[in-house]
Amino acid sequence: MIVVTGGTGLVGAHLLLHLVENEESIRAIYREPKSIEKTKSLFQLYHKETLFSRIDWIQADIIDVTSLAIAFKNVDYVYHCAGLISYDPNDEDLLRKVNIEGTANVVNFCIDYKIKKLCHVSSIAALGSSGPNQNDITEETEWNPEIQHSDYAISKYGAEMEIWRGQQEGLNVIIVNPGVIFGPGFWNQGSGLFFSAIKKGFPFYTNGSTAFVGVTDVLKIMIQLMKSDIVGERFTIVAENLTFKNVIFSIAENLKVKKPKFEAKPWMTALGWRIDLFFSTIFKTKRKLSKYSANSLHSHDFISNEKIKNALNYEFQSINDVIKEVVSLQK
């Protein structure tokens, strides 16, 4: 039996579909009944509705120990995909609770129930930062607590510390650190907002860059790592390092809509996060742009994928092909 936490998110939902297609015995955790509909819609998108009923759904929350206990009974392997993604500074406490405390709970149950192997989905946000004489960021790049990190990055780094604690207590673990993940079926949240915003005519782009990857590559690598003898390792899962401009223009071309016309300069995004802070304070709305996320739109870190390519002899799908697939399935 395999347990998947976060089965109603982008990675978890696609992982469930792939595992069920391969006739695995699957149990998935959900918090609210309505959230399951997102996963069900993904199965429908791929015309796999008949497979959806094979999933054993358990209502639980990774921060609620009592509800979580039943999910780990008679389980051999765990994919921990659940987590909170937010760059709103007001979510600092919730990020730490969900991503760090929630992961600690998952690790504890894996130890208690003698799980054979745990795969944890982290993020490139939890990687270290490049120094003056270092161009590429790898799995070995050291985390520098002295520089600015988002609350999200800190929470994902803290979650990884819980995974390594589990390893020290005898648990077989694997960590994957994906870049920005693109995949079909989730246009109204996370990275899907790239597509929905551009379709509506979002006018701006920046020349900063980051690492991107398709969801199919992420789950294929996770499954291969879980079936391998590899334990106690972390792997960055990125296909390409691209500028936001190139990615946004590619999405616009595939959607057949107008490309954004205006480059958002650093001074513009600096002004933008301050305006966003002002209005969110006055009207008690959720932050859309923080100081950290505004700065990240202009950064140029290069994330290396050499370790996973060498470990599995893996070749990634190009991001342009991923974008084409997302757009074609969404129509």
Automatic annotation (TrEMBL):
Location of the NAD-dependent epimerase/dehydratase domain:
2-228
What organism is recorded for this protein?
A: Flavobacterium paronense
> SUPFAM superfamilies attached here?
NAD(P)-binding Rossmann-fold domains (SSF51735)
A Pfam family assignment: Epimerase
Q: Which domain of life is it from?
A: Bacteria
Provide the protein name. NAD-dependent epimerase/dehydratase family protein
